[in-house]
Specification:
Blueprint lengths: L1 E4 L17 H10 L3 E4 L4 H11 L5 E3 L4 E4 L12 E2 L2 E5 L4 H12 L4 E3 L5 H8 L3 H8 L5 E5 L3 H13 L2 E5 L4 E5 L7 H9 L8 E5 L5 H6 L2 E6 L13 E7 H19 L4
Parallel strand pairs: 1-2, 1-11, 2-3, 11-12, 12-13
Antiparallel strand pairs: 3-4, 4-6, 5-6, 7-8, 8-10, 9-10
Helix pairs in contact: 1-9, 4-5
The protein binds (2R)-3-hydroxy-2-(alpha-D-mannopyranosyloxy)propanoic acid and magnesium ion (2 copies).
The site of one magnesium ion (MG) has 7 residues, from loops.
Length: 271
């Protein structure tokens, strides 16, 4: 089993960013040796500090599918990869600089504010993040989140214009994210192939997310869990095995992952 999980609104509470209710189940995954891959809109800088608090030692995907980082010693062999601060990285998206140049003329037509125009205090005001965390969220390499104040129709209009210049746009929990033509599913086949080199048994995938930016990841996994949000309706997800949690955020996450583990563990002796 390979678990892919979103952070905000999924493993972390939408408002408090707390993951306490999920801790016992994270420990269970560790005991069972199940890799849990973080797949988030957050940045490399945010992940560095968060992964320490979570005790996370597995690969992680940043900025909505833009790049996968492999911690030292993880998934050895395979293709040669560049290193960034001691981690190997496989990139899937163009750099943010190129992105900002291309979207600047489009954004002038809408009521919205991008992270590149916000300071730490402004980002704190719209996210509730601590100053240090807001500073890390602003250190982006591949994507531009926008605080959207314009209409839904205007957003559809921008989405089409963004697509026409080879970029994409997806809605997260609080922001609209503009990036290259990637989403959270983009790195999954590559990462799955890295794990497949190590194991003889076929790997099952489980993905958990709460927002529209998680749909591609949820649809690419064998089992999908939509984690209920306190602020937005569950996204529409197609697939054979899709469930919606009753509980919100990390509490819903914990129950859903436990249920899958219970099922796989009791099933194992018969196969
Ligand atoms: C942004 O991401 C979330 C993902 O759902 C959002 O759109 O609400 C990102 O900018 C991320 O870097 C940041 O930590 C988060 C804070 O709420 O917002
Ligand atoms: Mg989320
Ligand atoms: Mg996210």
């Amino acid at each position: 089993l390979l678990v892919y999980t979103d952070l905000d609104g999924t493993l972390l509470d939408h408002h408090s960013y707390d993951f306490g209710p999920a801790l016992p189940v994270l420990e269970r995954l560790e005991r069972l040796g199940v890799p849990w891959i973080i797949n988030t809109s957050k940045t490399f800088a945010e992940l560095r500090s968060l992964r320490q608090r979570l005790g996370h030692g597995h690969p992680f995907i940043v900025e909505n599918g833009a790049a996968v980082y492999l911690p030292a010693g993880c998934l050895p062999g395979g293709e040669e990869l560049p290193e960034e601060q001691g981690l190997r990285v496989r990139r899937f998206a163009p750099e943010r600089r190129t992105l900002l140049e291309r979207i600047a003329p489009l954004l002038a037509d809408y009521e919205c504010t991008g992270f590149s125009q916000m300071n730490v205090a402004e980002l704190q005001a719209c996210t509730g993040l601590a100053a240090e965390d807001a500073r890390r969220a602003l250190q982006r390499n591949y994507s531009e989140p926008l605080l959207w104040r314009d209409s839904e129709l205007a957003l559809e209009h921008l989405s089409a214009r963004v697509a026409a210049c080879g970029l994409s746009l997806l809605r997260g929990g609080r922001f609209v994210h503009v990036m290259g033509q990637v989403d959270k599913a983009t790195p999954m086949p590559w990462l799955g192939a890295q794990y497949a080199r190590q194991s003889t048994a076929p790997l099952q995938t489980l993905a958990l997310g709460d927002g529209q930016n998680d749909v591609a990841m949820l649809e690419a996994a064998d089992r999908a869990v939509i984690v209920r949000s306190p602020t937005h309706a569950p996204p529409a997800v197609r697939g054979r095995s899709v469930t919606l949690t009753d509980a919100l955020g990390p509490a819903g996450w914990a129950r859903a992952v436990s249920a899958v583990l219970d099922q796989l563990i009791t099933e194992a002796p018969d196969d």
